[in-house]
């Protein structure tokens, strides 16, 4: 299967380890992974901040770059939800504004074949045991757009439970937002920080060493809060845990 | 809306203080978490919840799409049943009508059932200015009124007060308004409820005029429905000689049968009960039973402007259950007052800027008072996609564009204060449309990474005041990929 | 222009996008939700009513026609009720053994203050809903004016079972006549206004006793 890695602009710039982990994991599972170099940004930050019209060319560009692949895999629940949930809505809005079907038609090909990583593993590759090894106590935070936008459900849990050596502990208040919310973190930084601090305290109460999630944007906020609160825990993207093996453990 | 809220600061400023108020944070956390878990259990009892939710959405959508027809049908049915229907285009007109109707009875005091619509129009203040005392009779409204406070929740306006604070307000204020609080009043909820019972009873028994809102109005029969718990609603709806109900035009359902959906979804969503203790339904007047004069005042006050927006009109489906407030992480930390409106929380963040417009500082900030986590949409019993409307209203703030205000089409200019952001968004869009430029920026960031400060200047302070800044890696992923996989560089 | 015409005009302009041939009401709503929840025998439905009434702190009693007058007399005596409000159409035999309580008829001329002096009220009901633990009054002859079940602090409500019991809210609405003034009662008055936790006993009757009387 010819799989395109849609890494997202945040991961590309700040979290290349997550990208390397996805490549390693999918290659190990027999996929032929490509990283289309022309990829940039799905337009989520623009769209959610109210700049829908600025997001449209980015969405068209996304579709141009990715439309010919069998599957498009992304290690981000929110960017995955942008393509799957909001690209169709952008097409509808353009139509309602009297601009015809052009945008909807341009974006349609990428919508059904874009998958968040854990979805792709469980639903398409049909694996839950990916042969990973990670001897740590881990708690999982379901990020909002993965949880409610994409409906990831228990897929991440099933994948983590199958990891050798990993002890998965339940996070109290798991389904509450961490407070990142894109530009919300800046525009309403007091509330965002309060939500982040509560999330970190809940994570600490589990006694886990690692807080794992499927979205580095949220982990950037949670990890930044952990650092400021001098917590001993560390944030790790689920791709990096699933890529880790006994032979090549996560650094 | 009510003058109480004029000149409110923008949401982030109001939230800044609320987040630091430990008592408030504790009160809200306790109350919202209590009801959150109970609601989840009450909803799980109904295996057809998703279908009830969908039907509720469809009933409301259909009604809104044919609102003119149903309003006329309702008016005919209420009139035929002995009621008198009045129409008010805005808050001032509604207040004038109600004041006139009360004065015509010769009375100088009225008892009120909790009603969002009358709060929205600032009726109590308007009546007071004409020498008419309006007594709130819902327990939480009483707490707010006695405490000279503002409501902070749709269902429980005094949610920001804990039992100790409520006892103090009762002891201090009840004597000023009527029967004083009993000697030795403690802070147990049962004693506080008893104190309210004793205090209000004399007012109920002598009241000649009652004022209410309504949860539903049935177009085919002219029936109004009030859903409540304490019995104060029944007191106001049945003991006075005159009843005046002030209701938003969007509260209509077409048929009697439609109630079968909402009487299942509303109580479970709001107080997490299978059914609330009391529901009153009346159709015009009934000879010898209840008020013999019944006025229905239908109010627009921004609703038709909201209706004109194809994305935003779904906010008019709201049945005021407040489930979205109880589940909202932002509401829980910022509190209801920060929203600067009688409609706080997620629904308020999409309703207030539509009813009032986005011109004021507070209204322009409300669409941003959300992390877009989607918990509100998930619990909404009429499936209002609140995040969708929030983003839509953000667009209205930053881009401006055509909207309807007071029934007329106008074109809004982009809001002030977003110029730097708009420039940054355009620059980012340009860079993201040119992968080569993006890559140059990434490389520059990587090469200078040892020089990056630990805290950020300007708007970046909003991040670094409470969170560490992520370290920039030695090379972006795309450089690693090209180095190791020899990818053809099509990034031009 | 009247405000009525102004508002209706605004509504019509706001709905310019709605086509003339929009889906009619009958087809616009998918009523795939359930008419009742669960599969119960008639007896089980009555049991569920009793259970849900009690769950919201109504006091539930069960008897038959022969036992009813004695039970009502006992309930009034236990409360020390000296006066009891009686709707015009209440079956006279229900109160034949309640000798100690003075009967007060339901009169239009009674003032709220007079009603406030009365200890108890005894009524029938129009229908009862098992799934929600609700009794519905619709001003029928054995129920009287709305206010008589509101002001006195003690309400004894007689439900004929299984005839007056339905499973669900949709079934209850089918049985009721919309034009009649209705009061749906689920437990004694309560409030959730202090810290969002439920407390019983505010303005309505603080004691609600429901008598399920089995029909022959």
Automatic annotation (TrEMBL), chain A:
<dbReference type="GO" id="GO:0016491">
    <property type="term" value="F:oxidoreductase activity"/>
</dbReference>
<dbReference type="InterPro" id="IPR004017">
    <property type="entry name" value="Cys_rich_dom"/>
</dbReference>
<dbReference type="Pfam" id="PF02754">
    <property type="entry name" value="CCG"/>
</dbReference>
<feature type="domain" description="Cysteine-rich">
    <location>
        <begin position="3"/>
        <end position="83"/>
    </location>
</feature>
<protein>
    <submittedName>
        <fullName>Lactate utilization protein A</fullName>
    </submittedName>
</protein>
<dbReference type="GO" id="GO:0005829">
    <property type="term" value="C:cytosol"/>
</dbReference>
<feature type="domain" description="Cysteine-rich">
    <location>
        <begin position="138"/>
        <end position="222"/>
    </location>
</feature>
Automatic annotation (TrEMBL), chain B:
<dbReference type="InterPro" id="IPR004452">
    <property type="entry name" value="LutB/LldF"/>
</dbReference>
<feature type="domain" description="4Fe-4S ferredoxin-type">
    <location>
        <begin position="315"/>
        <end position="384"/>
    </location>
</feature>
<dbReference type="InterPro" id="IPR017900">
    <property type="entry name" value="4Fe4S_Fe_S_CS"/>
</dbReference>
<dbReference type="InterPro" id="IPR024185">
    <property type="entry name" value="FTHF_cligase-like_sf"/>
</dbReference>
<dbReference type="Pfam" id="PF13183">
    <property type="entry name" value="Fer4_8"/>
</dbReference>
<dbReference type="InterPro" id="IPR017896">
    <property type="entry name" value="4Fe4S_Fe-S-bd"/>
</dbReference>
<feature type="domain" description="LUD">
    <location>
        <begin position="73"/>
        <end position="298"/>
    </location>
</feature>
<feature type="compositionally biased region" description="Basic and acidic residues">
    <location>
        <begin position="476"/>
        <end position="492"/>
    </location>
</feature>
<keyword id="KW-0813">Transport</keyword>
<keyword id="KW-0004">4Fe-4S</keyword>
<dbReference type="Pfam" id="PF02589">
    <property type="entry name" value="LUD_dom"/>
</dbReference>
<feature type="domain" description="Lactate utilization protein B C-terminal">
    <location>
        <begin position="393"/>
        <end position="483"/>
    </location>
</feature>
<keyword id="KW-0411">Iron-sulfur</keyword>
<dbReference type="GO" id="GO:0051539">
    <property type="term" value="F:4 iron, 4 sulfur cluster binding"/>
</dbReference>
<dbReference type="InterPro" id="IPR003741">
    <property type="entry name" value="LUD_dom"/>
</dbReference>
TrEMBL record, chain C:
<feature type="domain" description="LUD">
    <location>
        <begin position="106"/>
        <end position="213"/>
    </location>
</feature>
<dbReference type="InterPro" id="IPR003741">
    <property type="entry name" value="LUD_dom"/>
</dbReference>
<dbReference type="InterPro" id="IPR037171">
    <property type="entry name" value="NagB/RpiA_transferase-like"/>
</dbReference>
<dbReference type="InterPro" id="IPR024185">
    <property type="entry name" value="FTHF_cligase-like_sf"/>
</dbReference>
<dbReference type="Pfam" id="PF02589">
    <property type="entry name" value="LUD_dom"/>
</dbReference>
<protein>
    <submittedName>
        <fullName>Lactate utilization protein C</fullName>
    </submittedName>
</protein>
């Amino acid at each position: 299967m010819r799989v395109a890695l849609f890494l997202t602009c945040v991961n590309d710039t700040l979290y290349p380890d997550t990208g390397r982990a996805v490549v390693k994991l999918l290659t190990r599972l027999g996929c032929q992974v490509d990283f289309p170099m022309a990829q940039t940004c799905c337009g989520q930050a623009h769209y959610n901040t109210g700049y829908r019209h600025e997001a449209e060319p980015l969405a068209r560009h996304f579709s141009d770059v990715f439309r010919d692949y069998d599957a498009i895999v992304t290690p981000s629940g929110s960017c995955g939800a942008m393509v799957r949930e909001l690209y169709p809505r952008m097409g509808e809005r353009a139509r309602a504004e009297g601009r015809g079907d052009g945008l909807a038609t341009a974006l349609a090909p990428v919508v059904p074949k874009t998958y968040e990583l854990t979805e792709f593993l469980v639903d398409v590759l049909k694996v839950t045991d990916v042969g990973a090894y990670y001897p740590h106590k881990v708690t999982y935070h379901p990020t909002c757009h993965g949880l409610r936008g994409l409906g990831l459900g228990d897929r991440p849990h099933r994948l983590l439970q199958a990891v050798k050596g990993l002890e998965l502990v339940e996070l109290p208040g798991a389904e509450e937002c961490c407070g990142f919310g894109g530009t919300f973190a800046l525009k309403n930084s007091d509330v965002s920080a309060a939500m982040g601090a509560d999330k970190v305290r809940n994570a600490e109460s589990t006694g886990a060493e690692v807080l794992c999630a499927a979205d580095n944007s949220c982990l950037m906020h949670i990890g930044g809060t952990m650092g400021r609160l001098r917590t001993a825990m560390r944030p790790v993207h689920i791709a990096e845990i699933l890529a880790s093996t006994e032979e090549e453990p996560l650094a | 809306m009510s003058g109480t809220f004029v000149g409110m600061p923008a949401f982030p400023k109001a939230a800044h203080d609320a987040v630091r108020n430990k008592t408030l944070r504790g009160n809200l956390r306790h109350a919202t978490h209590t009801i959150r878990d109970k609601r989840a259990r009450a909803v799980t009892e109904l295996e057809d919840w998703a279908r009830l939710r969908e039907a509720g959405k469809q009933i409301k959508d259909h009604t809104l799409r044919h609102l003119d027809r149903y309003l006329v049908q309702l008016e005919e049915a209420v009139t035929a049943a002995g009621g008198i229907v009045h129409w008010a285009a805005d808050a001032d007109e509604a207040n004038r009508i109600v004041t006139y109707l009360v004065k015509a009875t010769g009375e100088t005091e009225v008892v009120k059932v909790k009603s969002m619509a009358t709060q929205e129009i600032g009726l109590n203040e308007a009546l007071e200015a004409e020498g008419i005392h309006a007594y709130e009779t819902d327990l939480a409204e009483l707490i707010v009124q006695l405490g000279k406070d503002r409501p902070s929740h749709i269902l429980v306006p005094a949610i920001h007060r804990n039992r100790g604070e409520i006892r103090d307000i009762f002891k201090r204020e009840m004597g000023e308004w009527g029967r004083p609080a009993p000697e030795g009043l403690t802070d147990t909820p049962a004693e506080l409820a008893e104190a309210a019972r004793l205090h209000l009873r004399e007012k109920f028994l002598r009241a000649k005029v009652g004022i209410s809102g309504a949860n539903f109005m049935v177009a085919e029969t002219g029936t109004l429905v009030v859903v409540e718990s304490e019995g104060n609603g029944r007191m106001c709806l049945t003991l006075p000689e005159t009843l005046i109900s002030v209701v938003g035009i969007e509260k209509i359902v077409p048929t009697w049968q439609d109630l079968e959906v909402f009487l299942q979804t509303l109580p479970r969503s709001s107080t997490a009960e299978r059914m609330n203790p009391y529901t009153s339904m009346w159709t015009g007047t009934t000879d010898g039973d209840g008020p013999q004069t019944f006025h229905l005042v239908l109010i627009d006050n921004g609703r038709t402007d909201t209706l004109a927006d194809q994305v935003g009109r779904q906010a008019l489906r709201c049945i005021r259950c407040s489930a979205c407030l109880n589940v909202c992480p932002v509401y829980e930390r910022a509190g209801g007052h920060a929203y600067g409106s009688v409609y706080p929380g997620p629904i308020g963040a999409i309703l207030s800027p539509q009813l009032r417009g986005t011109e004021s500082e507070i209204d322009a900030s409300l669409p941003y008072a959300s992390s877009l986590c989607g918990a509100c949409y998930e619990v909404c019993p009429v499936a209002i996609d609140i995040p969708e409307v929030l983003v839509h209203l953000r667009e209205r703030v930053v881009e401006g564009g055509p909207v309807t205000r007071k029934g007329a089409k106008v074109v809004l200019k982009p809001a002030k204060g977003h110029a730097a952001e708009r420039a940054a968004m355009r620059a980012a869009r340009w860079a993201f449309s040119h992968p080569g430029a993006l890559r140059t920026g990434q490389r520059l960031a990587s090469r200078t990474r040892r020089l990056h400060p630990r805290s950020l200047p300007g708007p970046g302070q909003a991040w670094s005041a409470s969170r560490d800044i992520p370290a920039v890696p030695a090379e972006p992923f795309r450089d690693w990929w090209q180095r190791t996989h020899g990818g053809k560089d099509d990034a031009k | 222009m009247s405000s009525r015409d102004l508002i209706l005009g605004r509504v019509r302009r706001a709905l310019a996008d709605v086509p003339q041939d929009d889906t009619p009401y009958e087809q616009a709503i998918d009523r795939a939700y359930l008419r009742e929840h669960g599969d119960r025998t008639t007896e089980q439905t009555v049991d569920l009513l009793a259970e849900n009434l009690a769950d919201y702190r109504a006091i539930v009693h069960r008897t038959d026609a022969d036992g009813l007058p004695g039970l009502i007399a006992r309930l009034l005596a236990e409360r020390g009720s000296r006066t009891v409000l009686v709707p015009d159409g209440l079956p006279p035999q229900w109160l034949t053994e309640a000798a100690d309580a003075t009967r007060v008829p339901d009169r239009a001329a009674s003032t709220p203050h007079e009603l406030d002096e009365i200890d108890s009220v005894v009524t029938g009901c129009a229908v009862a809903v098992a799934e929600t633990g609700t009794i519905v009054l619709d001003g029928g002859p054995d129920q009287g004016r709305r206010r008589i079940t509101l002001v006195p602090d003690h309400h004894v409500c007689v439900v004929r079972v299984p005839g007056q019991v339905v499973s669900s809210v949709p079934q209850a609405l089918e049985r009721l006549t919309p034009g009649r003034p209705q009061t749906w009662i689920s437990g004694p008055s309560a409030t959730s206004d202090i810290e969002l936790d439920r407390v019983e006993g505010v303005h309505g009757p603080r004691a609600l006793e429901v008598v399920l009387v089995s029909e022959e």
